[in-house]
Amino acid sequence: MRRTAAFFSLFLVGCDPRPVSPELSGPVIPGPADSTALRLAELDRRIVDRPDDADLYAERARFFQSLDSSRRSIRDWERALELDSSNAGFHLELGSLYYTSTLIDRARAQFERAIALAPDDPEAKLRLAEIELVERHHPVAMNLVNQALRIDPNLAHGYYLKGWIHKEMGDTALAVSSLRTAIEQEPTYYEAFVQLGILHAAKRDHLAKEYYTSALALKPRNVEAWYNLGMYYQESGQDSLALETYARMVEIDSLNPLAPFNSGFIRMEYLGDTRAAVKDFTKALDLNTNYYQAWYNRGVALERLGSLDSAAADYQVVLAIRPDFDLAAEGLQRLASKGAYVKLLEDRKRKS
Fold it and tell me: Interior CA angle at 8 toward 2 and 11, to 5°?
């Protein structure tokens, strides 16, 4: 027996060694896709074992929602409510999903049911208030918000919605007051800082800069706040700061056409650098070929530079995208009177 073992050992030593393939070496560590599949398989197995457990369908609905799979999430929420129709939280979550899926009537029904089941829960009242606000039913929305705040006077989102309602009803002072209260309740409320910036910028109030800066401290890579800050600088005549802000926007989101468009406007209208403006408008058009305002502004810049045929070509593109854009039509008539070639007008002459 020992001799056989020795022979076997010699045989192994004498053979050419073959390494284990790297793909098979060691345990396989699941990647994100594998982990998702495993998680879903586990949820499916548990539901098969307990098909009447509403909480399991709710758990899988949330999982699908985390994967941005709204249709499958909605289906599971609906099944969960078939099994447990008295669960106010389920109605609230399904209503929120309907709302983000722009199924507004369905969302409304779910929020109303959640309120009926749990009248002391302020969250559903706020969600229903959002729908009333979107549909511009301001008194109804305000009443719902006030009901929620009577239940919990520290709800930052409630004061934020009050600010929106006051803003839409034209009461800027009350809008500012409500939004400031929202920030007092929740100092990291980014959206409230942005709205306060917008309201103060409309009055050319220097506090707009402070609110936008606070918003950017919370979300430094959010293009919305950078754009709003740039617009504040632009509208208040701080051209260099506006251009710096738009340049920062480009660093964060190089595919956003608003920054080069606004930069071109500043260079053409305020700095008198029309050639640089043409380059900026061209950059915006490279990012969005249907940006008819950029086509128009580049046409204006080219017209000022004396490139009349090129300007006419740009105005014609504007009218191809927006036939009702009167400024472009007026520009074509003006250029035609100066002898520019306007293909659109020439074609009309030939047809007549």
Answer: 145
Note whether 297 and 284 are within 8 A (CB): no
DSSP string, 103-117: -HHHHHHHHHHHHHH
Question: 111 lies in which domain range?
Answer: 50-119
Q: In terms of Cα–Cα distance, which of 76, 24, 15 is closest to 47?
A: 76
Q: What pLDDT was estimated at residue 339? A: 84
**Model-level pTM?**
0.80
Residue 302 Cα distances to 263, 308, 324, angstroms: 16, 7, 22
What's the rounded mean pLDDT across residues 127-143?
A: 97
26-68 confidence digits (pLDDT tens):
444 445 556 888 999 999 999 999 999 999 999 999 999 999 9
For the chain, the straight-line distance linking the first and the last C-alpha, in angstroms and rounded, comes to 109
* 257 occurs within a structural domain: no
